[in-house]
Amino acid sequence: MKSVFITFDISHKEAVIDILTHNNCRGFSFFDHMQGRGSVSGEPHYGTHAWPSMCGSIITVVEDKHVDNILKDIKALDEDSPQLGLRAFVWSIEKSY
């Protein structure tokens, strides 16, 4: 099992959920109204007058076989509008119940 953590401009929320649904990932947790700044490019997401956009994140635990397709779909969405900010990170899950 793998955990996939996805951070994104809030405007990507529905598209990210659609990607997870399309890849048979039913369970996830969504974190709303987050603030942040990408490490490479893109605009800060601070929710302020100067930087009004906000970001969100989703974490899900999936079978290994779904990871590559999720990352491929997330990357394609990011390439459509790279300034908005969208990243995905994967961790191994050692145990769960």
List the helices and strands and how they pair.
Elements: E1 2-9, H1 13-22, E2 29-34, E3 55-62, H2 64-80, E4 86-92
Antiparallel strand pairs: 1-3, 1-4, 2-3
Spatial order of the strands forming the largest sheet: 2-3-1-4
Q: Work out the radius of gyration.
A: 14 Å
Order of helices and strands: EHEEHE
* Span of the ends, CA to CA: 12 Å
Low-pLDDT sequence parts: none
Q: Biggest β-sheet: count, sense, barrel?
A: 4 strands, antiparallel
What count of helical segments does DSSP give?
2
Helix content: 25-40%
What is the number of beta strands? 4
User: How much strand?
Assistant: 25-35%
Q: Which structural class fits the helix and strand makeup?
A: alpha+beta
Q: Kindly state the mean pLDDT as a whole number?
A: 90
- What characteristic shape results from the CA principal axes? globular
